Amino acid sequence: MTQSTELRIITSIEELTMHARSNNGIVDRTVDLSRQNISSLPEEVKEIRGSLFCHDCPQLVSLGNLQSVDGWLNCHDCPQLVSLGNLQSVGLWLSCFNCPRLMSLGSLQTVGGGLDCYNCLQLTSLGHLKSVRSRIDCTNSPLVNDKQSLLRVAEDTIILKRDTQNRLHCQDGCATISSAHEPEFYWHGVKVPSFVILHPESISLSYHINFERNAEVRRVMILRYGLDRYLKDAGGTLIDYDPSYGKLWQIIVGDRPVFMLEVINSSPEADGTFKHYFLSVPPTCSGNPALPKDSPMDSSYKAVWSLHRIIWGLGIPYKPSIET
Questions:
Q1: Arithmetic mean of pLDDT, 69-83
Q2: Angle at the Cα of 70 (from 55 to 177), degrees rounded to 5?
Q3: What does the alpha-carbon distance between residue 115 and residue 159 come to, in Å, rounded to a whole number?
């Protein structure tokens, strides 16, 4: 079976030029010119009814007279690209990220999918753009300072900031704006309530940290509150310690003891630090039925809590030979 004409992919400037000339500027196929040393698309090309892939082209400066792409337009990682020129519409996704010299979206008015323009260091305006149907990612671009224009064109989430590991993160404001135009707050990939970012001084030990059930959110709250301050204010008492499993702390909440297991992620972060987690130890996690439920943490009771038996209260020793 031979491949149909419609499914063939154009992979050279010469073939693209011939096809456009014979169809009055219309190209009804997908075009893949990625990683080629081209400086511009042929002037004859006005409309591509498939997708256009011209990413990682080190010499690409212009898209010529191209006016529309019905599918995807991938022109990311083109260090010399300055403008999208006469382009007016992209049917699906437009990826122009990592184009440090891109200064203008040209005549672009509509994007039927999402717009990725992060690391476009000179892109300061959305120009004539009227609508983007899916996500906009403008991390590390001057566009983050023009929230009014972003909200005007966006129909979905707007990504404003990430950390060096590409996780949603902003230490002094919102990292994203939702499709409902609501700010959303993240700390190194963890979605948290706004006050954790904007007003960390308002974090309450009794109302927030002690009753937060999500371990990741609680970890961020404790980090913003201050680990040393947390243990001091909570009246933390170190009950037991095993270098293989972590530290078992007793903290008084109201008039009852609460036990927390401090564990350290064995995989380091990009900056070489290790995440600390405080996991609530279930009160039913007792392996010695002879002891009353409310027995004090004497040596015999600590043995029951033997740190490798309290992970998630399963009573199953957790001591892997290899950690990944």
A1: 95
A2: 75
A3: 10
